[in-house]
Amino acid sequence: MAYDDALAERVRAALPEAARVREVAMFGSRCFMVDGNLAVGVMGDELLVRVGRDAHDETVTEPGVRTADMRGRPMHGWVLVARTAVASDAGLAAWVTRGAAFARSLPPKA
User: Fold this and answer.
1) Which comes out higher in pLDDT, residue 1 or 25?
2) Ramachandran region of residue 77, left (φ > 0), alpha (ψ -120 to 50) or beta?
3) What angle do CA 57, 4, 15 make, to 5 degrees?
4) What angle do CA 73, 46, 25 make, to 5 degrees?
5) Rounded to whole angstroms, how far apart are CA atoms 64 and 92?
6) How high is the pLDDT of residue 60?
7) Ordered domains of the chain (ranges, CATH)
8) Does residue 14 contact residue 5 with C-beta atoms inside 8 Å?
């Protein structure tokens, strides 16, 4: 699955400047690690966001959001946000900030 280069570029611009960010090609997507933990990614034309298990059920009730799955297996704690929900820069920034905040809440990895 190819990923949307334009969306990936917008994600780069929306990531917190103070964060240690590393980009990784993974599962045919472009993922962004914050402090060594996966925070967000671009899968196709959707945004993958790590929200954690505790926030998952509430998050999937938001418009344009669904549970991420890998080969048919639901990934609780991860959501896919539709292109329409990240069409505005403010909408994208809110989701990127959410994913980065969750990643930062975890112990840093090298």
Assistant:
1) 25
2) left
3) 65
4) 75
5) 12
6) 98
7) 5-105 (3.90.1150)
8) no
